[in-house]
Records
---
Amino acid sequence: MPVIRTPEERFANLPGHPFKPHYVEIGGVRIHYVDEGAGAETVLCLHGEPSWSYLYRKMVPILAAKHRVVAPDLVGFGRSDKLTEVSDYTYKMHRDTMVEFIKALDLKKITVVVQDWGGLIGLRVVTLLPERFSRLVIMNTGLPTGEEKMTPAFMAWRSFVEKTPDLPIGMIISGATVQGKNLPPEIMAAYEAPFPGPEYKAGAKAFPLLVPISPHMEAAPEMRAAREGLAKWTKPALVMFSDKDPITAGADQGFRDHIPGAKNQPAITIRDAGHFLQEDKGEEIAGHIVEFMERSPVR
């Protein structure tokens, strides 16, 4: 399992990202995380594919004004170490790393914010460590078990990743925002910063192939277990999807119907935002999260 590390100079002068890096070693791999603000409660922000904690840069200052905000980079992304082989990236590895990350930092009273693969990993971790979590914020994600029909948009994305040796990370991010081609080149470069070459992108190539498209895939029973756990989740849960994401469209109502703690929360839709809604409307989303936390205090 060869491990490589993106040179630090790749992260110099990131626009809109003044945050000091923090690191913890888990299972022989160095994990990077943003750690801003202070307080008894923690907002844990989990990114997806092929982004990194940079995606939350617009939200961190707003949330950190009142709470501690922790935004890790998953293994293979951001400033965290990368494994060079696609086969080294398993669902179990990601799940276990996040469990150990939370334990290593001893995070409690967590409001977890998940999007894309942050949901597939984070919502399962919630059901494994429920005593550490106080609230859920669920955005543009899903819990596929391999029994449902995947959207044509997802299958096209999966096929593209499978056939593309060197993923164009910046183009992928910009293409999944409403800003699209108008996303500034320096922002696209920031998303590309963790990946100096194809050998750094094994984690990004692995994620789409780990999404269960049959009930026999590794992550399928984990997704079923997450669903079962969330069906009993009575603590507050805010479901907040965007209106212009062909990948996860319609899954928001499924979460609202399935999670008891979501039934008394407003049905919020982030307008004019794509799959990476944090990039399109980060400040607006952070405002909704602050309001959500204020109206549902931790008991």
---
Amino acid sequence: MGTPDLLINSWILPILAGPAIGSFLGVLIRRLPAGRPVAAARSACEACGHTLGQSELIPVVSYIIQRGRCAACGAAIDPEHLWIELAALVVAAAAALCVPAGPFLWLTCALGWWLLALGWIDARVFRLPDVLTLPLILAGLAEAAWLEPVALTDRVLAAAVGFASLWLLAVTYRRLRGRDGLGLGDAKLLAAGGAWVGVAALPFVLFTGAVLALLYALALRLRGTTLSGTLKLPLGPFLSAAIWLAWVRP
């Protein structure tokens, strides 16, 4: 087996790549909503501006070695960077357990990492950027056109149904309550989910996303948070998880 085949067919490589992908996602998640350049600017300490060297950019390892502090000024590094890197690793490991090694494993990891970024951004700023949701719709349809041409019509219909269902729910909620309850970003995310998993899986996505959101609300209640009609809860993280579960389930 040649090197290119080994790179494609190994289940170990996606796992090894997970933290590095997570490092990039950490930059994306923190910079994109703020309108800051994602790829053009060098990584730097957020406290003193020290440009990070290569030894300070090793995913997970550098954070542990530096004990979560900047090597230049000693300021604490936001542990969010570490959690995102570990989350990306978990996505890759879970994908490796659910699907066979090969191109489909890489595709599954890529979808999981993309959804991880969307869900994390929504959890931070209550927004699902079009620059991530809309290409995800196109990517799902492209995957169907390339690998499952017979499913393309179903995927297009699922994207339309996914968007329309949450859009109608958002419009109805606003008319009944006089305020927004769902954003169009959620509708676009469900459209992306439909583009990847098809019409038949949409009920699973909606049900699973709703259950996860309810469990999160229950956890907040147990921690002492008062639940009310004005409490904002991001739906994106739970929809993202549900979409990925629908993709990897048998």
---
Amino acid sequence: MKGKTELLEIHGKIKSEIERRLREFEKTWRTDDEKVFSELAFCLLTPQSKAKVCWETVEKLEKSRTLFSGGEKEIAEFLRPIRFWRKKARYIIEARKRFTKGGKLVIREELTKFLNNPMEAREFLVKEVKGLGYKEASHFLRNIGWGRDLAILDRHILRSLLEFGVIDEIPKNLNKKTYLSIEQKMRKFSDELGIPISHLDFVLWYRKTGEVFK
């Protein structure tokens, strides 16, 4: 298999760091609704934007409490370094309203019904949260410790899958049918490599960037 040795070597090198990161994600779910909502906000910001910049922005929004109580214009001011910042500010406000009850964030309460079925949780999120597609919903679920069997098909991962012959082309439109089809191919590739799919996106990301991030 093309590139198998390289990927196995990278996995061996960063496996312990990946496992530590995944344990951190699982702790997020057990922390509080604000931490879980922060991860949702991060994933709403990531399309066509740099992940590090998005996370730094979320941290500033958290610290100022603007993420949890600020209006759309206040949030938008923090988002200026991010593409489509006005639209993404609206998405955050709408998501906050969707997961607020009696003046309190209840995102964990809403998601608990899907506790043993992350794929159903993903369908729920894509339907209920404006601005969240399959990639973003998968990323969010992974970041709260739920998505160990879900693929995060961002442009970096898709390019790698093309390079390794897992897919024949990068689709112009990543609709539900296409996303699930490529996810299944990535799952098969993961099995053939002997690298868990929850580790594989980290391995492919590390191969391109030299770091393990979110």
